[in-house]
Model the fold of this input.
Amino acid sequence: MQSFRIKPNGHKEIRNKMLMIMIPIFVIVMSITSWTSFFNTSDTRSTVHHPVDTTLLMISIASFLVPFAVVSFLMFRFFTRLRKMYESYELQISDNLIAREQLNTPTVSIFKKDVQEIVKRRKGGFTVRGTGAHDVIFIPKQIENYDELEAALDQIKPVSNKSQKSNLQLIQGILSLVGIGLMYCVILVNNKIIVGVAAVLFVAITVWNFIQTQKSKNVQYRAKRFKWLSLIFAIALIYIAVQKIMGYQLF
Done:
């Protein structure tokens, strides 16, 4: 049996790449939220001109700094768990089976005869797909003995550079970004038709993402449990949408 693990400090490379994506998105979202809070508060004030409105300025700053502090703490905890998760990563290739084991994550086992394709991703990692939609093993490029692993995978199934199947992770990532835009439509837009359509699409995306997350064997158990909060958030957004469409308070 062959066994492969993540190389020492390999998680740092993964962490840095994730930060390069997460930080700009967070700054953009928080900036929009801060400016929205500033202008909405400004509209409720007197129309008398004030050279400098310290209260509005402090509200705008707080609406950025408080979420920033909270998200920074959550990101610290997330990356701490990420390090433990990648340090526990182990890929095993036996005579008739390829399996991935990881801390607090369902084990993925695929019989060699059931491997449908092995794809070498553009950035160097590998994806092994079995017969089931969720029988997928993701192998990061930070794996030890990379060349030896690639040769072993090529013996199971010729390694391809192009997948014949859709990338579910990419689709989920795109839909998550679309969901953020739909959320802001519901909260900021007053047109009833736009609010209604955006709310329905947001709920549909949220429910689909929730189902895919629960079925996935590459998502930690903690993340699966945390995903239930997205359904609560979807209900809250429906409440906001109904308020706007019907023009009255529900409670």
Remarks:
- Residues 43-52 have pLDDT under 50 and may be disordered.
- The chain is about 60% helix and 15% strand.
